[in-house]
Design goal:
heterodimer, A: alpha+beta, four-stranded antiparallel beta sheet, two-stranded antiparallel sheet, 24 helices, 15 strands, disordered C terminus, B: about 1050 residues, mainly beta, 22-stranded antiparallel beta barrel, 15 helices, about 10% helix, disordered N terminus
Chain lengths: ~625, ~1050
């Protein structure tokens, strides 16, 4: 008996002392490679570069992984502050991400600024790691990968410099102990000390990359040559950056290289509209665009270490842009957009549309690709096949019947917020834009590429530099090319900077040029046009149009500044009334000098005493109390 | 006095050795019966003849016979009863009644790796016996704790099969794992939802740091120890219980009805008669109460059958349980079915060796419906009352539907199952507003989601007792778990916001094996007045899982067989479906190793001391090799003043029967927050960019690779330290009992997932240990038990206060702005910030109405134009900086009251629980879609004319203003008191039932969750909250599964 007891005791004691259990605690991580041993082969370089492109696509120009739901910060910041864009939606308060930027009424960092700033740095990290890990390239491909990453990085810095002036110059992968500071306070000699130096750095970096490893687009038909960074894009960006730095001759040299390469061309006017849809992907006009591809294997939102295809697309942005269908008795554009019923987040100021019509004429391919008249839209007489076909299902009606019909029209009592008689069409999704391989993925996505640079912009930038250096003749050549291709009724006999500015405003509407151009021009030029445009900016938010249909809602005495489409109630069905809800709510609206630069996001400043706020914006109280006072 | 017999009730060799006939009949001179106060026979009572060595033990029927003189004295004793001394006085057939020993001092409670006399406790352990919870209508052991013990909050969901969450002494962290460690019969389990309350012998909640410290790094959120029943010694018993609960919708939210809706929107000016006419609204005919359309009465049935028996050598229990709950949503899309089997057995093989086994087998199946943006439950509260549930004419189509109906395939318009071409019927959708839900019934029918699984949980143990003061235990526990889920959804179109363009199908299979091996020895010996106890042991656990998922979706048909119901499997994917197939699988492992020990000492039942220590190590997926070990000590002491001679001299035991003070300090950890090699920078492959032209070249995307995380090799677990001071007292001959604990629990090194301090570093998140949360509170229990003649009564109450405060987040991050419910545009969100309760509501502070203009006023920063000083004053357009703390969804005070009455065969129980101090943010009313429905309280008490002294502003001015709908005007008190149970039972006298071979038969009827007292205008404040494990979305209400009230009929039969 005792024997058994003790043998059992020994057994259990032995078991208890069985410490080799600790080996069991070492569980190797599955599906993981270490950072130390990766980044060796061409395949690794290819993967690292793919990550850099993916992050550029999603975090720089896309909706970013950081959280904005339905919009892309890059597009909001590049376009909404422009004088040629209104903020729309269901009503005031809807789509604030655009509204607060559009009307210059953000007292504190609006979310789009926060997300764009952080998103660009997420993207920069992926550029820096390629550049660092393959600093000594072991093959031509590795050399090329580094060069492409350098240009992506340069573009990231270009945006940062435009928006924040002298943001932290993170040209390497940071350690957690480094404290970023504005580059003007950065002790390193290579850090740009002013916004202009930043632009120069971008331009020079692009030139270097072009000389050190970038490939050239094979021909104007080489679609793949538009989906990645090539010499053409490097020089186009270098030219733009030199232009922003006021280095006209250097800008011209770079831009001329793009023009002379013969790898790019303006597409015919008939195809102008296609440039903003899937049919235009990789067209001869595209210098660089981010290639969006549906990828079932990537999953919807995330895919291992990368992003899912929802993140690759701009997701619900097309839905934001689309005309707000619930304002209409019969939703317009339904067939065109394949059921994407929109929220109407962007609208056109009346003055801009009128000027565009006046310049281009109603037959202009460019005009008809950029915007559509409310009457044509409601009556289904746009000349755009899908829209008109959809309306053709209405019982056959004469135009006169349509004008008097309440089966169609804007039936919302509060009108269509932020819209005037012409509504945007350029970026409205087409049924085919969510289709790939014959399958449509979701009505709220679009799979057409995100344009980073279009040849038309290169020509217009070149023309501007020519004008600034006294070469109006060359400028005219290119401006005329643009006008002719557009099908505009105006083909300028002589050109000056105002001609160029107006032409660029029609050609490049909502393509990220306008606001930065205006900021530049307002410092360089004193022409009346530029002054008028700046005045428009200062009045943003003071006069919000609502587009009404008199058959559903006639003007009332309380309506402010009623404008009939054709001058009077008798000859017009649609009219505009005006409100200023943001002012009513106590906001100061409109452009001020401080808006030349965006503020650094409050959440970033609060944690970093080394980061100095831009002029005119409130500095945070460190330690992040609630007392961040309004300016 | 550690009692291992009741600790180790489990036993091995289950089935075979079950029921041993006990035979013990002897010669008779004096015969008699021993009964308890209720007249039930006491089996196994000892009957001794005073002054002799003669004695006997009572049999199954409580009968004994013993040789004794006619004038002898019998001493009758039985554990748990006060011994009785009876003179024979020449009688035969003596009936002796033993009364229960009310000195519950001798109660034994289970503590980690051992047991302890309740009177010896030095920590804060709440203990609940199976009897306290046996007739509740819940089938979830966790939910059964609600209102029964102090210091424990239960978060219930109304949905069938949704398990209750348990919070012990507050919310200690920002992480998603705030639930206590759950141990059932020594086995660590992942939930206790499977455990039917009727199988539970006792539940102990180790609340203070010292008691929990023996479980170390896993015990930071408290420990719940459950002991399941085992066969009682004596006569074999077969019992059957049956419960049928008729469930119906509990409290509804106060939504607009059609007339009020029209009146309201006419006032707002966004609805005019012309529109109603144009849309052919039939005033007076259509006024849809969506709650009534969606919910109905349903039944929930429970059966339990238990067989048990035991003798000196062993015990056996086998139980079968069936739960069949059809939730209150019309149709069968919300159901919970569960079948459980339990086999517990132990057997004493030798005097020095006992083996035991407990095994539980569970099979479950659940269908459920979701909450949140665009969900079925959101639809119930958001769709307007002018829209009928179903329509029968295309003229009644909602917005955009007519156009869709005309297009190819009818534009994917979803058809109700009853649709036929001859008798068409469609889901009604709104003509007035497009929203993300469109019609709750359609959302219900569209959902085809089932999950089911099998769990086997069990343990095998051996106790070796070489000496009576030493017990060595080796125990192997295991869980085998397998589950499957299936989902299929068709494309549908109900409105521009509620639609899906593609088919999707998914299936997943999850399998896991968990085991733990523990070896520990307990020593306990009395040296005179000194009692010394010691325990030492080790434990190793390993969890292995291997889960596989597959899914496919596309706008083209993905299944063969036209996706008929029997073709809705991954097997049936057609070529298109296969080309869109995605799948996932990677097995995983987790391991832990621990050493632990305890020393306890007491002197003369007056002074008590205890020391615990545990060393824990976790595997490399959680911590680096350098950081893997953690050490968790605790100390506690107690002083039973009432056992002091001076006290006994001074105070009568009738007045103060028992008085003890105790105090403890202990450290615990929370390791749940760590997983997935968070410290380790690796390359994660994934993501893609396409350098090729997919249209012409048929190219393929290039896969990316980049560092996965910002590495932090210093990561460690959260650590909490808790001080507990307590008093236990009983007065007036033990009739009045009182317990009071005060605790202060500080948790530090919270694992914070935050944006890097400098986002320029290029990572979205970094994980670091930072942040501190303090929970303090009082746990109070007060009870009274007595009887007046045959009427026995008792009232037990418990109260808990909780003050929860974040003491620190991070120097660089004083506030975490948490993500609010996704899909909504409100500006009020949950925040985690220093100086506030965790995840408080941050929004604008409403200051009332300007009575002249009807304008909404708020509190905000006002700068004095003269002095330039900024103070908080009244503003009409507050900025984000004016947002402030508007309260929190966590109650600061919870309480429970149980009243029991027994009279002859009748028993009556009233049991209620309540909460106070919790706030609810109701965001059903939407500023960006003012026409969706919502609660009507604002409108009912809103400003309409100058001079109105109303609570809410002119709705015309705020209907589209998120500032108002993100302000404290939309925050309501979530305080409530709920009658959880009002139960009347009757036990038919055994004299009658014995004729039918039934030893006990109890019938009862009960109203469960029937009455709720609250001022909240939404639905039931107890459940009106979106879910999220870390408490972030506590109190956010835009439609959740409502609670049901139940009428329960039940039968308990024992043969």
């Amino acid at each position: 008996m005792k024997k058994i007891v003790f043998s059992m005791l020994a057994l259990v004691a032995g078991a208890a002392a069985f410490t080799s259990c600790e080996d069991q605690l070492d569980i190797p991580q599955k599906a993981a490679l270490t950072t130390e041993t990766y980044y060796q082969t061409d395949k690794d370089a290819m993967a690292a570069l793919a990550s850099a492109y993916e992050n550029f696509q999603v975090n720089t120009v896309g909706r970013t992984t950081l959280g904005p739901g339905i919009y892309t910060p890059a597009r909001v910041l590049a376009n909404h502050p422009g004088d040629d864009v209104n903020y729309g939606g269901q009503c005031y308060g809807d789509h604030e991400f655009g509204g607060s930027v559009d009307e210059f009424r953000f007292l504190h960092t609006p979310e789009a600024i926060n997300y764009h700033y952080k998103g660009i740095y997420l993207s920069l990290f992926c550029d820096n790691i390629v550049i660092e890990k393959f600093a000594e390239p072991a093959s031509d491909f590795q050399k090329q990968a580094v060069a492409e990453a350098r240009v992506l990085r340069a573009y990231n810095f270009f945006l940062l410099a435009c928006y924040w002036g002298t943001p932290p110059f993170v040209d390497h992968t940071m350690t957690t102990s480094e404290v970023p500071t504005n580059s003007e306070y950065d002790a390193r000699p290579e850090a740009p000390k002013s916004q202009q130096e930043y632009f120069l750095w971008v331009a020079q970096e692009c030139e270097k990359a072009a000389a050190e490893g970038l490939i050239e687009r094979k021909s104007a038909d080489d679609k793949e040559g538009a989906y990645r960074v090539t010499k053409g894009f490097a020089y186009a960006l270098a030219g733009k950056a030199y232009m922003f730095a006021g280095e006209w001759d250097k800008a011209k040299q770079c831009l001329k290289k793009v023009i002379d390469s013969g790898k790019y061309a303006l597409v015919p006017g008939d195809q102008f509209m296609d440039q903003f849809h899937i049919q235009g992907d990789g067209s001869p006009e595209k210098i660089f665009e981010v290639n969006i591809r549906y990828n079932a294997a990537a999953g919807e939102w995330s895919s291992g270490g990368g992003m899912g295809w929802n993140n690759h697309s701009t997701w619900m942005e097309p839905q934001c842009f689309q005309i707000r269908s619930d304002k209409f008795k019969k939703p317009p554009l339904n067939a065109y957009t394949d059921k994407v019923a929109g929220w109407g987040s962007i609208g056109l100021p009346k003055w801009y549309a009128d000027e565009f019509v006046e310049n281009d004429g109603l037959e202009s391919k460019r005009l008809n690709a950029t915007m559509v008249n409310i009457e044509n839209l409601v009556y289904g007489e746009t000349g755009i096949d899908l829209i008109d076909t959809y309306y053709s299902k209405l019982p056959s009606m004469s135009h006169a019947d349509k004008v008097a019909s309440t089966a169609i029209g804007i039936n919302a009592q509060d009108g269509h917020y932020g819209q005037t008689f012409w509504v945007p069409l350029k970026h409205i999704v087409r049924a085919g834009d969510a289709v790939e391989d014959g399958s449509s993925y979701s009505s709220v996505h679009r799979l057409n590429n995100i344009i980073i640079m279009r040849y038309a912009e290169v020509l217009l930038n070149y023309a501007e530099c020519c004008l600034r250096t006294g070469d109006a003749a060359t400028a005219k050549t290119y401006i005329n090319q643009i006008q002719e291709r557009a099908g505009s009724k105006t083909i300028s006999g002589s050109v000056d900077l105002v001609t160029l500015k107006k032409e660029k405003s029609y050609e490049m509407w909502f393509e990220g040029c306008r606001y930065q151009d205006l900021l530049r021009w307002s410092k360089l030029d004193s022409d009346q046009y530029t002054k008028d445009c700046m005045e428009h900016l200062k009045k943003q938010g003071t006069h919000i149009p609502h587009l009404y249909d008199k058959l559903f809602r006639a003007p009332e005495a309380s309506d402010v500044d009623v404008i009939w489409q054709y001058g009077s109630e008798s000859n017009s069905r649609f009219w505009i009334g005006h409100t200023h809800e943001a002012q009513d709510a106590g906001f100061e609206v409109g452009w001020q000098e401080k808006h030349r630069l965006f503020p650094y996001p409050t959440t970033v400043l609060e944690n970093n005493p080394e980061l100095h706020q831009n002029p005119g914006w409130p500095a945070p109280t460190f330690g992040g109390g609630d007392s961040d006072s309004a300016e | 006095m550690w009692n291992f017999k009741s600790l180790q009730k489990p036993l091995v060799f289950l089935f075979l050795l079950c029921l041993f006939p006990l035979g013990a009949m002897a010669q008779s001179v004096v015969k008699g019966t021993v009964n308890d106060e209720a007249g039930e026979p006491i089996i196994g009572a000892s009957v001794k003849v005073q002054g002799t060595k003669t004695g006997a033990v009572t049999d199954f029927n409580g009968n004994f016979s013993v040789q004794a003189d006619a004038n002898a004295t019998l001493v009758v004793s039985y554990i748990g009863y006060t011994p009785a001394t009876v003179k024979v006085n020449g009688r035969n057939n003596i009936v002796i009644s033993l009364s229960e020993d009310s000195q519950t001092l001798s109660d034994v409670v289970v503590i980690g790796y051992g047991v302890q006399k309740k009177s010896d406790l030095t920590g804060a352990v709440a203990s609940l016996k199976g009897d306290d919870i046996k007739n509740l209508s819940t089938s979830d052991a966790g939910a059964a704790l609600q209102g029964k013990v102090t210091g424990v909050q239960i978060i219930n969901s109304g949905a069938p099969g949704a398990g209750a969450s348990i919070r012990v002494r507050g919310y200690s962290s920002n992480s998603g794992n705030l639930g206590p460690l759950l141990i059932v019969d020594g086995l660590k389990v992942d939930n206790i939802q499977y455990l039917d309350p009727s199988l539970i012998e006792s539940m102990e909640v180790l609340k203070d740091g010292a008691s929990a410290a023996i479980y170390g790094a896993q015990a930071g959120n408290g420990v719940v120890l459950i002991t399941t029943k085992n066969g009682s010694k004596g006569q074999a018993k077969v019992s059957y219980t049956f419960k049928a609960a008729s469930q119906s919708l509990g409290k509804k939210a106060e939504l607009f009805n059609a007339n009020d809706y029209i009146e309201y929107h006419k006032y707002l000016g966004d609805l005019v008669d012309a529109e109603l006419q144009e849309k052919a609204y039939k005033q007076g005919f259509v006024d849809t109460d969506w709650y009534d359309e969606v919910f109905t009465n349903s039944w929930s049935l429970q059966h339990n059958l238990t067989v048990e028996g035991g003798n000196d050598k062993g015990h056996f229990l086998a139980g079968l349980g069936i739960v069949d709950n059809d939730g209150i949503v019309r149709g069968d899309k919300d159901t919970y079915k569960r079948f459980t089997g339990q086999v517990n057995a132990d057997y004493k093989i030798y005097k020095w060796l006992t083996v035991s086994s407990n095994t539980s087998i569970e099979k479950w199946k659940r269908k459920s419906l979701g909450d949140g943006y665009g969900s079925f439950l959101n639809a119930v509260v958001s769709i307007d009352p002018l829209t009928p549930a179903y329509i029968y004419d295309t003229a009644d189509f909602g917005m955009n539907l007519a156009a869709a109906w005309e297009s190819e395939n009818h534009g994917n318009i979803l058809l109700p199952p009853s649709y036929t071409e001859e008798n068409p019927v469609w889901y009604g959708t709104s003509k007035y507003v497009e929203d993300a839900t469109a019609n709750p019934l359609a959302q219900r029918d569209r959902s085809n989601s089932t999950s089911e699984g099998i769990n086997v949980r069990g343990s095998l143990a051996a106790n070796i007792i070489p000496f009576d003061f030493l017990t060595i235990t080796s125990r192997l526990g295991y869980r085998i778990s397998q589950s499957n889920g299936h989902n299929y959804s068709e494309p549908y179109y109900l409105s521009s916001m509620a639609h899906a363009d593609g088919y999707s199908i998914s299936a997943n299979t999850n399998a896991s094996l968990y085991y733990q091996w523990e070896n520990f020895a307990n020593f306990n010996k009395q040296f005179g007045k000194h009692n010394v106890g010691a325990m030492a042991g080790m434990s190793f656990t390993k969890n292995h899982w291997d889960n596989t998922s597959a899914s496919s979706s596309d706008t083209g048909m993905i299944l063969r067989g036209e996706a008929a119901p029997n073709f809705r499997y991954i097997d049936c994917l057609n070529a298109n479906g296969i080309s869109h197939l995605s799948a996932g699988n990677a097995p995983g492992d987790a391991t832990e190793l621990a050493y632990f020990g305890r020393l306890s000492y007491s002197f003369d039942d007056r002074y008590f001391l205890q020391v615990n220590f545990r060393a824990d190590a976790f595997d490399s997926s959680k911590l680096t090799k350098e950081n893997r070990w953690g050490y968790f000590p605790s100390f506690s002491a107690g002083w039973t003043i009432s056992n002091e001679p001076f006290f006994k001299k001074a105070v009568s035991t009738d007045a103060v029967s028992f008085l003890k003070i105790r105090g403890s300090w202990g450290r615990n950890g929370n390791v749940n927050i760590l997983s997935g090699y968070k410290y380790n920078p690796t390359i994660s492959l994934g993501g893609y960019y396409d350098f090729t032209d997919q249209y012409t070249a048929g190219g393929a995307a290039t896969e990316g690779g980049k560092p996965s995380i910002l590495a932090n090799p210093d990561l460690t677990w959260e650590t909490s330290e808790q001080i507990d001071l307590g008093i236990d007292a009983r007065f007036l001959n033990n009739r009045l009992s009182f317990g009071l604990d005060w605790y202060r629990k500080m948790t530090k090194d919270l694992l914070i997932d935050m944006e890097p301090v400098y986002p320029e570093i290029g990572f979205q998140n970094s994980t670091l240990n930072s942040g501190e949360v303090l929970n303090t509170g009082f746990d109070i229990e007060l009870g009274w038990r007595d009887h007046v003649g045959d009427l026995k009564y008792g009232i037990m109450t418990n109260f808990s206060t909780l003050k929860n405060e974040v003491k620190k987040v991070n120097a660089a991050l004083p506030r975490i702005n948490g993500q609010g419910p996704s899909g909504f545009n409100n500006k009020l969100g949950p925040c985690f910030e220093e100086g506030h309760p965790i995840w408080y509501f941050r929004g604008f502070e409403y200051a009332g109405v300007d009575p002249e203009t009807g304008k909404a006023l708020y509190y905000g920063a006002v700068t004095d134009e003269v002095t330039g000083e900024t103070t908080r004053g009244i503003v009409d357009a507050p900025t984000d900086d004016d947002k402030t703390d508007l309260g929190c969804g966590i109650p600061t005070f919870t309480y429970g009251v149980t009243l029991n009455l027994e009279y002859k065969g009748f028993d009556f129980t009233v049991f209620g629980t309540g909460a106070y101090g919790n706030k609810i943010y109701n965001f059903m009313v939407s500023a960006d879609r003012p026409r969706i429905n919502g609660i009507d309280v604002y409108w009912q008490d809103s400003w309409k004319n100058p001079g109105d002294n109303s609570k809410y502003p002119d709705m015309k001015q705020v209907a589209t203003d998120w500032t108002f709908f993100s302000s404290s005007a939309c925050i309501f008190s979530g305080a409530y008191f709920k009658f959880k149970q009002i139960q009347l039972g009757y036990t038919i006298p055994s004299k009658i039932t014995k004729k039918f071979l039934v030893s006990q038969l109890r019938l009862y009827a009960s109203l469960d969750d029937y009455f709720t007292i609250t001022s909240y205008p939404g639905a039931d404040p107890e459940t009106a909250s979106l879910g999220s494990d870390n408490g972030r979305l506590r109190g956010f209400d835009n439609g959740t599964y409502p609670t049901s009230k139940k009428i329960v009929f039940g039968v308990n039969v024992t043969f």
